[in-house]
Fold:
Amino acid sequence: MAKAITQIEKKQKNLQEERAEDLSAIVNQIADNREVIQDTLVILQELHEAGMIDMLKGFLRTREKVGTIAIEQLNQPGMHNIIKNGMNTIGLLANMNPDQLKAIFGGLNQGLEKAAKSTESQEQLGMWGLMKSMKNPSVKTSLNTMVSFLEGMGDGLNNKEIH
Structure:
């Protein structure tokens, strides 16, 4: 009959063997992710050439001072209004129909171009010219749009619930 095993000997690796295995695992990982590492190095080189790495190092070295200054600036009374106005603007943009906004901005751009040309020529529009322009379909469309805008804005201002 066989003897019972009462003692198990574990082979313990020495420090050099552990480091060799660790290095082998790192080299394998580098080989597996070669493209990603090369892209990362290209990005880092571009950031270095642009001076961004030096700026980032300086920022990290003075992060406590920069943080203190940022908090002080955020605590300014005007900054609270800027943040609130920014959030309200984002809410406004989220509620707008992009196609309608594109049409309005397109008309606004053309109107600004025409207004710039008219200021260059410095022609004065008299009362007769103003009345004559009311027959122009483009002017009628623009006036109708502005009156509709004013009506909608008035309805919004008269509404007691502010959204």
